[in-house]
TrEMBL record:
<comment type="similarity">
    <text>In the C-terminal section; belongs to the 3-hydroxyacyl-CoA dehydrogenase family.</text>
</comment>
<feature type="domain" description="3-hydroxyacyl-CoA dehydrogenase C-terminal">
    <location>
        <begin position="490"/>
        <end position="593"/>
    </location>
</feature>
<dbReference type="Pfam" id="PF00725">
    <property type="entry name" value="3HCDH"/>
</dbReference>
<dbReference type="GO" id="GO:0004165">
    <property type="term" value="F:delta(3)-delta(2)-enoyl-CoA isomerase activity"/>
</dbReference>
<dbReference type="InterPro" id="IPR029045">
    <property type="entry name" value="ClpP/crotonase-like_dom_sf"/>
</dbReference>
<dbReference type="InterPro" id="IPR008927">
    <property type="entry name" value="6-PGluconate_DH-like_C_sf"/>
</dbReference>
<keyword id="KW-0511">Multifunctional enzyme</keyword>
<keyword id="KW-0576">Peroxisome</keyword>
<comment type="subunit">
    <text>Monomer.</text>
</comment>
<feature type="domain" description="3-hydroxyacyl-CoA dehydrogenase NAD binding">
    <location>
        <begin position="308"/>
        <end position="486"/>
    </location>
</feature>
<dbReference type="InterPro" id="IPR001753">
    <property type="entry name" value="Enoyl-CoA_hydra/iso"/>
</dbReference>
<dbReference type="GO" id="GO:0070403">
    <property type="term" value="F:NAD+ binding"/>
</dbReference>
<dbReference type="Pfam" id="PF00378">
    <property type="entry name" value="ECH_1"/>
</dbReference>
<comment type="similarity">
    <text>In the N-terminal section; belongs to the enoyl-CoA hydratase/isomerase family.</text>
</comment>
<dbReference type="Pfam" id="PF02737">
    <property type="entry name" value="3HCDH_N"/>
</dbReference>
<keyword id="KW-0276">Fatty acid metabolism</keyword>
<dbReference type="InterPro" id="IPR006176">
    <property type="entry name" value="3-OHacyl-CoA_DH_NAD-bd"/>
</dbReference>
Amino acid sequence: MSASKETEGAVAVITIRNPPVNALSQQAVESILKVLKEVQFDPAVKAIVICGENGKFSAGADIRTFENIGQKSDSLSHFLEDVNSMAEKSEKPVIAAIEGVALGGGLELALGCHYRVAHVKARLGLTEVLLGIFPGAGGTQRLPRLIGLLPALEMITTGKIVFAPVALKLGLIDSVTEDNTIKAAIHFAQNVIGKPLESRRLCTKPIQCPPNMETIFNDSKIKLKKLFHGAISHQLCVEAIRAAVQLPFAEGILKERELLFSIFNSEQARDQAKARQYAFFAERRVTKWTTPSGANWKSASPHPIGVAAVIGLGTMGRGIVVCLAKAQIQVIAVEQDGKQLEMGRKAVTKILERETLTMQQRGLALMSDSFGSITFTLDFNSLKNADLVIEAVYENMALKKEIFKQLSSICMPEAFLCTNTSGLNIDEIASVTGRPHLVIGTHFFSPAHIMKLLEVVRGYHSSPTTISTVINLSKVLGKIGVVVGNCPSFVGNRMMGPYLHQAIFLLEDGCYPEEVDKVLEEFGLAMGPFRMSDLVGLDVGWRSRMESGLTGPKLLPGALVRQREGKRYSPLPDILCEKGRFGQKTGRGWYQYETVGGRNAVPDPWVQNFLHDYRKAHTIKQKPTSQNEILEWCLYPLINEGFNVLEEEIASGPEDIDVIYNNGYGWPRHMGGPMFYASMVGLPKVLTKLEVFYENNPDIPSLKPSGLLKKLVKQGSPPLKEWRSQLGYQNSKL
Ligand SMILES: CC/C=C\C=C\CC(=O)SCCNC(=O)CCNC(=O)[C@H](O)C(C)(C)COP(=O)(O)OP(=O)(O)OC[C@H]1O[C@@H](n2cnc3c(N)ncnc32)[C@H](O)[C@@H]1OP(=O)(O)O
């Protein structure tokens, strides 16, 4: 961990060294300061270049040192600001040579420099807000002075990262190079030696402000509240930028410091920051997968995938084709039916056109011919050329088995066979092939080209190489792959089950869909259970319940309306479906919509009357339910199922579950994920509540507290990072 100096003629090159990402620890900043002082006083040095070792400028503060967030991170920011200020005041030109990343404190350091030269592929951003803090080393004061109020407001409040070409357009950097960045920066430095520096010092620059600033700040706060559901740091960013506009630079720096300090002083803001930092490391932790049999990320090497095939061009298949093509993988897209194939081709082309436009807007000159080529075909035999096949037909075991039987004989013997399913048994599908070790589940989330999560479902026979290949593929696709075990509905949907049932029981007991949704959305979930069900389509669950005989023609005669095999059952969603209310797709569901396919959910008086009549018909007494009761009643059973999933070794650690929920189910990152949330609430409290719920509702088995939860409480509720050791897995490094 150091910064070193070399000289190239009259130019001193300071290199930050702290592998793997040149994070700015206390020691690293001390070292930069020391070398910077040294070169300031060296008469032979006429200009200074600052760069990072191994193609990365700096990923900002060392997040690992934030563990006990408080004064320490606060003073680290002040310290970095001292360095920034020294660079800014230097009488010799200081040039940041940005390769790879300049993020958070890394970009703040670059803003203290007089000039910035970046490699064309470099990424720049003030990402602090995504870790629950905000730029505290002058970033909120310098960025608006450099690129203007509105772009700075957007970058700082959302943590948006821009590529060098966009940064150049914004005026964030002065030059872009496709060649050696350090050499380009040295050359740049040589050209500016002796030129006046006053106009290059951001601390002296006025901010160009539009006249309606107050409206801009207020609108921004409202927008951020909706977007980030009550996360405090985003709001504070706006206040810091307001200070940049209203105060002289030095006072603005003091205000920035005061606001940052307020995060460390508020328990709620501190918890949100802890949760976000946990979520960051949890995403890295899940790449180091393990299975109960002892296979792990180190024990297998992934195979590269040059050609991938997708079978079925419905909504999921189309999205999967798009993400493979975007990753420049050659795709064979197969359909059974000519009309479906044509519709699929058109839909994929349309999405890729939109993606091209977005890429261009983001400064990535990626034209459609830079996507992997796609062959649309009805010919199943073309699958013989694929390294990996993803079957994405609808959820029907017989159909999937039929397809896998064919794949087994058509595909290369070493080809990997994946099934995109949200809950079917992988082993049953693998059993019809002659290569169960190469079969694995890939549960994509809709829309597949956008959602980051991929549940990678290991079957009993899936080999470590197969797991490793698909996890690697998920990274290539820009997704986060989480390895999970094979059980009905896997991890995410399995935990959703009790949550959705609980929400529906609340309707029987006196709540309305909009009331329940409001509580969960205020908690931070992207969508409450009823809006989400309307989006997914109520018919999906209805079909599956009919299939399993819970409702419809297969229901055994004499079954009670509100009970199945002695367990509480609510027929409410079945009745809605019988009335043709499938959600957004029919314009009616738990809500009403302005049109068929509309998205704006409006409370429906029909639903209210229907619930009223239903309660009356079943003589259910309406119970008043507080917001807190709604929250606990819905979330604690979801968490409880998470503990069951851990106990059964379906997920290998709490981080896996949290990554799944943060990236696939709209869980608010500033709440860390359901398991992290449970650890913050306190396991004894969750357990006690579940015990009371179960005692009062013995006909709801999902309320029965999980054995693992009880065990952890009995052991004195160890911190989350120790739960893994209770499962026989290696200890978490978090
Ligand atoms: C002196 C401080 C003064 C002011 C304070 C300012 C506040 C901040 O700067 S907050 C930090 C802001 N920085 C970020 O948000 C960047 C976070 N990192 C990333 O986004 C990515 O890691 C990446 C830099 C884009 C690299 O991505 P990738 O190539 O996919 O590799 P990863 O697997 O993500 O990371 C590799 C390895 O590095 C660890 N790591 C990354 N960033 C940091 C960091 N800032 N601090 C500490 N460690 C970091 C990451 O955990 C990985 O470690 P493993 O042990 O291999 O898992």
